[in-house]
Structure prediction request, 155 residues.
Amino acid sequence: MLLKIWGSIAKFFSYKLVIIVIGIIVGILGTLSYIQMFGIPSQKVLQNISKAEEAKVLQEVIEKVSKLIVLPKGEEPVMATITDADALVKEQLFYTGSQNGDVVLMYQKALKAIIYSGERNIIVNVGPITPQDNAQVEQDAPVETKATSTSAKKK
Prediction:
């Protein structure tokens, strides 16, 4: 009698164990299939594009920006995409008005940076950049500010 009960208990648990194991396997395969099809969500931020695609995108941006402003001749800019505009504004006011997805074109020889918004098709800001070799000199140099008044003195 005890053996019969033990046998039925063993059968009951073995069926549940098989079902649990099959469920785990199906879950793992489903997760792997999802990752294979859609990628890991954090990797979507890091888009791997080839050099040819990168050059094509750069040329398209240069073409659009050149319709809005005269660009420096004789050099290809370095392009960067803004991914956290709020943080950049906190670091430098130059980025005020920029949005995530806007592009910064940096011309090293002309010492010029341009923020372009493709979504709005506008130049957000243009400003000078500091050459890397002079950055240390400027950082060590003392900064003097003088207040000037534009109002005329009456005598």
Remarks:
- The first strand starts at residue 78 and ends at 81.
- Residues 2-44 form one domain.
- Residues 147 and 153 are 16 Å apart (CA to CA).
- The chain has two domains: 2-44, 51-132.
